[in-house]
Sequence to fold (831 residues):
Amino acid sequence: MSVLQPAPSAESSPPGSPSPSPEAAVAALIDPAAPYLIGVRHHAPSLAAAVPALLEAAAPDVLLVELPAETQEWLPWLGHEETRAPVALAAARAGDGGGTAFYPFADFSPELAAVRWAVRRGVPVVACDLPLADRAWRRGRRSGAPVPRVTPSSVPEPPEVHGPGLTTALRARLTGRPGDDLWDRLVEAAAPGSEPEALRRAALLTGWALRAEAAAAGGVPEVDLRREEWMRCRLAAATADGARAAVVVGAFHAPALLAPAGAADEVRDGGPPAGAGWTTSLIPYTYALLDERSGYPAGIRDPEWQHLVLRAAGDPTALEEALTRAAVRVCAELRALGHPSGPADAREITRLASDLARLRGLPAAGRGELVEAVQTVLAQGEPYGRGRAVARAMERILVGSRSGRPAPGAPRSGLAPAVESEVSRLGLPGPRPAGTNGPGAAAKDLRLDPLRSDLDRDRDLLLRRLAVCGVPYAEPRGVVGTGGAEALTSRWEVRWTPATEAMLSAVGVHGVTPAQAAEGVLRERRRTERDEGGPMAAQTLDGLRQAAECGLPELADARLAEAADVLPASATLSELLTGLALLDRLRAGHVAGLGVDEDRAVRADAVAGVLTAAAVRQVDGLTGAEDPADAHALLELAHRADVLGGVRLTDALARLEQEGSPLMRGAAGAVRVLLGHEGPDVLGGRVASWVDGATDRESRSALTARLTGLLTAAGPLLESAAPALDPLLDRVTGLSDQDFLHRLPALRGGFDTLSPAARDRLLTAVEERLDGVGPADRADRARPGELGRTDPAALAVWTGADLGARAALASLGLLPAPAAAGASASHPRTP
Fold:
């Protein structure tokens, strides 16, 4: 018997107990003496199209919908004729931001269709699910679990069961396409051409089957049992005066509503009143977020396709037209991406999808057949290149870009009021009161120490979350640290402007609290990275840092696991060391958003070990590097020598000094001295030989690169280690004017890598070695910071002109002849 055919009459089982057969179960669920049950799954377009007709036929006096009691006040606005879907009901627990519930709705959501029907007909609507303030939500489905991001009216897949079961048998008989769950196969795929009542029976039967399987596998979760008891109590209260009730509820829960209600006092025992500590909102939403690949668990695949199914309203001919239209649009989008595709491809997609539906005994092709046909015709088995372009075209067309909004007269809610409340609580600049002029409060400079002050921690979290969301409110002004130690203090400039409020409205689709919005933005970013073939190493590091700094532990843990997979294989040495520094902060609890967590510290320590080994391997890969950033990275590696160590690092540095590019030879030499692998006097002699050998253009260019690498990696070494500095200064001061002039651009180019303060200290050391240069002479001379703004080649030209003028004057007897070698007191050697 088809699941969409009416079931024969049968005696119903005792209320609440499993029926002996599917036929008896359906008979009990549709018994006219029982409440009118419409079992649904969230985002089920076939049911959404049938719900208005079902409710018209039932003509209920009151409608109950599976939504928590806190959302009751928003139901008239949810069903308002000017509310444009997709929208979402959102709830957040006040104070800690840890409790959130999210209920997205599209036109193809059966609950939204039911609420709209009730609002149009003036039928009272009751949100009949357990209040979010009840303790059962906080316990979740296991002890200690946080409040889940709720998916209303869900039909869960049953736990894995050993041995044959009802759903196993149904799948073996009915499933014909990969990735379909039991609901899609029994209800959605077989819906075209079916009557609304037959569709209702199929949905109730599917929910009963899933519940029977869950009961056989160990029982229904405790939180669901408490929810169902609450719903039975609300149903009894709504029908106490004899009113006829219709209930739109998850099909999984429908069989439980046939049992008698418990005592209201027993149901309410142990829980606070509905709404206590919770803030609810009605916010705009988008199809991009509604797609389950965005990371939101209440989503569905390809919302735009589901919208087309809703518009077809169960008509197989209309669904066939929607299939053709979707195929044509995918081919057009693929052409826009630069890949050939034409009408012939669209016709073949439609034909293949329809043939698959006929082979599977379906009345019309659905999403599964469309996806298979597009992949076969357009991707042609190629997972990369053209295959990725096809996937992108399908995403743009089948996911869609629709966005919604609440009715214009709806109360103001969402992210903007939540942020305004937070900035007021934290004493930060906010919007001006109504009736006053000006863009908002004046800018405020903040210096935050989040590891020592709870107020600063809350401020830092808010500012970082808004920054991640792209809200123009807080601008970082750097971090504050001393003595090379890790900076634990941050500086910000904050200002509330009209752009702040405008952006808060736009970002509100991601959540109704700063934490929720930041997590939504970061999860969407992560999904995009994966769609584009990533994430890359830099993206992984940024994602981990931002999730940690925004106080999002679940996302931070996901990025931490991702770092262990991505970074060793693709990160540069600089990126690996950046990752190790970030892991150091996580292990030490120096990320204020996360604090100290022993389990996370253990995981971070394990990842650090993997990155450490990868960093040592990277040293051999720097042989041809010519970027000073790689020299900086080598220095960071030296700072971690006590952790890394080992013969492998020693050998790699020795090879790099012998075989590397000029820049990396200089950097490796400095690092070896810092690690004690080589004495500073040996390095000093080698540096002096570089100066001696700089006799032509190529060798002088190499001298610049070697000095750049040397001083980039260890400028303080030459400032403080005399054996390394003396041979270089001896060579420079002993050169003839002409030889010094030839090497001047190369020397200046290398020493320019030092900071102005370091060059100033170096000049002081040079002056102390020169005879006959008094303090007054040194005071009148231009300091390195001034010379550093002049191109070394220009300095060489000026000096050459000066020497030529002196020689000309000497030839006329107006000046003594210039010295053949060395430096005079008036022309000291300062590279």
